Amino acid sequence: MRTVSANDRGTVRLARAFAAFLCALALLPAGSGAHADVASGSRLSAGPGRECATPSIDQYQQWLATGEGTTVPATGSLLVPEGDRYAAKVELLNDEWHVIVVWLGNQFEAQADLSGSSGFWLTYSATDDLYVQLRPASHWSGGDKWLTPVPSTGGKLERRFFSFAPDNWTWLPELGEPSYSFASALSEARGLVFVGKTPNTLDFRGLEVDGYQPPCL
């Protein structure tokens, strides 16, 4: 009988470990690296469980034109098919205030506590600057809300991060000063509301809020 040396046993163990690594590598999905092409707006598929049975963008089902300001579409859902996913598209017309709403809990009555969230990622294109308001459940109506600028992308799809750091949020004298704190808005967030006063072509492809995932309805 041949005696197996310690070196031989080490070689066998190494070969087996390498073979197991190759098998595991073969089972990984193509393009599984953490990569996003900001220039073209493409990104990894959200994968199973990340979209709802009805049209949604990252499980957000309610992207709505409110009828405030002249828009196309004038009211209702902005969601349209885009390849194997959905996009929220709207045109803002005329020099007047326009209001576009995203309900964070997919229904008006819902709210989310975002006190522990660092902010949100938005994948979008815009031909002009606009703002996004964080509207709380207790102070939903009116323009006197905390907001942060959403820069124009020149019509190109980009993915940008918007921090919930209080210093990044302000208000506009034209719309009024909020009567509540930004911290309270975070604790009872009902929706993100995009507002703009100039003609604009908007295309939303992604919305990811740190630490929060909306329920599908």
CATH superfamily name?
Answer: Galactose-binding domain-like
* Biggest beta sheet summary: 6 strands, antiparallel
Provide the CATH topology.
Answer: Jelly Rolls
For the CA atoms, what is the radius of gyration?
23 Å
As a percent range, the share of strand residues is: 35-45%
**CATH hierarchy class name:** Mainly Beta
Cα end-to-end separation: 69 Å
What count of helical segments does DSSP give?
2
Number of strands: 14
Shape descriptor: globular
Total separate domains: 1
As residue ranges, the low-confidence spans are 1-49
- List SSEs in N-to-C order: HEEEEEEEEEEEEHEE
The portion of residues assigned to helices is: 10-25%
Main β-sheet, spatial strand arrangement: 5-3-8-13-10-11
Q: Structural class from helices and strands? A: mainly beta
CATH-scheme architecture = Sandwich
What does the secondary structure layout of this molecule look like, with pairings?
Elements: H1 6-27, E1 36-37, E2 42-43, E3 63-66, E4 70-72, E5 75-77, E6 79-82, E7 85-93, E8 98-103, E9 119-126, E10 130-136, E11 147-150, E12 158-163, H2 182-187, E13 189-196, E14 200-209
Antiparallel strand pairs: 1-2, 3-5, 3-8, 4-7, 6-7, 7-14, 8-13, 9-12, 9-14, 10-11, 10-13
